[in-house]
Amino acid sequence: MRNSPETHDLTINQDSKRIKKECLRLLTRRDHSRKEIQDKLTYKGFDRGQVSEVIDELSGQNWQNDSRYAESYARVRCQKGFGPVRIAYELRQQGIEPEVVESALTAATNDWDSILEAVYFKKFPDNNRFDLNERGKRLRFLLQRGFSNGMINSLLDRQSKKST
Predict the structure, then answer these.
(1) Residue 1: its pLDDT value, please?
(2) pLDDT beneath 70, residues of the chain
(3) DSSP state, residue 8
(4) Are residues 126 and 90 in the same domain?
(5) From the centroid of its chain, how far is CA 113?
(6) Residue closest to 103 by CA, chosen among 78, 75, 67
(7) Burial annotation 111-149 (CB, 10 A radius, 16+ → b, else e)
(8) Tens digits of per-residue pLDDT, 107-119?
(9) Same domain, 21 and 55
(10) Is the pTM of this model over 0.90?
(11) Which CATH number covers residue 19?
(12) Does residue 13 contact residue 3 with C-beta atoms inside 8 Å?
């Protein structure tokens, strides 16, 4: 027995309502990127096209906003001591556009050097004279946290001059 077109439309409408309910459940807890919601709901078995339509609707109503998500995410990661390189990488992995990533990083802070210093002194409180091996260890740690090579070398050069 074949389904009539009306039954098919009813099924699509019910699926859209379930998708919207699931999206709102996710968004009331915290902001999510568009890609993050699509991936979660597709994993649960919903049709990717229908999910995309519902997210478009929610974006129009400002329930889902990638810019807001990116700013919030960048601010939290910045407070946890991560640098701009790593935060930008993580946001791009969440499907955030490059210009939105840039504005989110700018909105998060305008003083990356103070964050770098805070992370550095928390990890390495004793700032005695250090050799090349120790410098490499410190450099790798800060690179892994997401700070640029130039920022790190500038900090390490200042610290090595202070300890002489």
Answers:
(1) 43
(2) 1-12, 128, 162-164
(3) H
(4) no
(5) 20
(6) 67
(7) ebeebbeebbeeebeeeeebeeeebeebbeebbebbbee
(8) 988 889 999 999 9
(9) yes
(10) no
(11) 1.10.10.10
(12) no
Task: Give which of 43, 41, 102, 111 is closest to 70, Cα–Cα.
Answer: 102
Retrieve residue 156's tokens: 């390490």
**Total structural domains within the chain:** 3
The answer to whether position 4 is within a domain reads no
Q: How far apart are CA 15 and CA 110, in angstroms?
A: 44
Same domain for 94 and 123?
Answer: no
Q: Which residues of 11-33 are buried (b: 16+ CB within 10 A; e: fewer)?
A: eeeeebeebbebbeebbeeebbb
If you search the block for the tokens 């910045």, which residue do you land on? 78
Helices (H), 30-97: 34-43, 48-60, 66-79, 84-93
Q: Are residues 17 and 57 in the same domain?
A: yes
The string of pLDDT tens digits covering residues 30-42 is: 999 999 999 999 9
3 state SS of 97: coil
CA distances (Å), 28 to each of 24, 40, 43, 72, 129, in order? 6, 15, 20, 14, 51
Q: Which domain holds residue 80?
A: 67-108
